[in-house]
Amino acid sequence: MRQPRRSAPALLLALAITAAPIAAQQPTVTPDGEALGRSWDAAYVNPDFNLEPNAFLVAVTKDRTPGEALDVGMGQGRNAIFLASQGWNVTGFDASQVGVTQAMEQARKSGLKLTALRQTAAAFDWGTNRWDLIAVMYFPGLRAYLPQIARSLKPGGVVAIEAYHADAALDRPPGPGPGVRFESNELLTLFASFRILRYEDVRARADWGMYTTRMVRLLAQKRD
Questions:
Q1: Which of 76, 115, 159, 184 gives the lowest tally of CB atoms within 10 Å of its CB?
Q2: What would the pLDDT profile of 20-47 be if each residue is shown by its tens digit?
Q3: Which residues of the chain have pLDDT under 70?
Q4: Residue 66's CB: how many other CB atoms inside 10 A?
Q5: In terms of C-beta density within 10 A (0-12 exposed, 13-18 middle, 19 or more buried), how is residue 173 classed?
Q6: Where are the domains of the chain?
Q7: DSSP letter string, 63-113
């Protein structure tokens, strides 16, 4: 499966989704940022793209009290929409205009409140002690943005991650991009300062590509 690359240049269009009409700021973008967004646009116009919420995210949030949630690289909003339907106050961002627009449309149809931002991770204002939950599903920039994730979580807040194991490349060479592949126990090392609530290293059906391969999943809690 082809994994489009993400990079740092900023896309500054912010779109707030409510039942009321949407006011949009004029975007100020760089050429590299536009190319980044278009690379993801191609994935989201695929009619076979998975629109179901991530099963791991559904499982680990089932008994959590809703609060402020962030969906990193939200794409078409399948996970953000699910969280909003469960009572979370959700913000999501993605570089793809196609993905953000589809998330907006689905939120309207579902009568849900959702804040969707067309931004890169570099442009997004992560904040400090801001989120009760951060969902990081197949996001290629996890390693690079680990400090922002840690800083922006509230004490006691959790981060939920799903990605590929490095061995996933053996199933479909050359495999997914290196940004979404992790060695055995690498996520445990990256989040060593957190309380590990759940870790999985399993063969399972991937949301991206929809094939069975080796996956890694983590639910970790920021210590008080």
A1: 184
A2: 322 233 233 344 555 656 666 877 777 6
A3: 1-40, 47-48
A4: 15
A5: exposed
A6: 32-221
A7: TSPP-EEEEET-TT-HHHHHHHHTT-EEEEEES-HHHHHHHHHHHHHHT--
Planar angle of CA 134, 82, 91, nearest 5 degrees? 45
* φ and ψ of 15, to 5 deg: -125, 120
9 contact partners, CB below 8 Å, separation of at least 6? 29, 30, 32, 33, 36, 120, 122
Amino acid letter for position 187: L
Q: Are 66 and 113 in contact (CB under 8 A)?
A: no
Domain boundaries 32-221, corresponding CATH code: 3.40.50.150
Q: Phi and psi of 177, rounded to 5°?
A: -60, 155
Full-model pTM: 0.85
Residue 98's nearest CA partner among 32, 27, 41 is 41
Question: Concatenated DSSP letters for 119-135?
Answer: --TTTS---SS-EEEEE
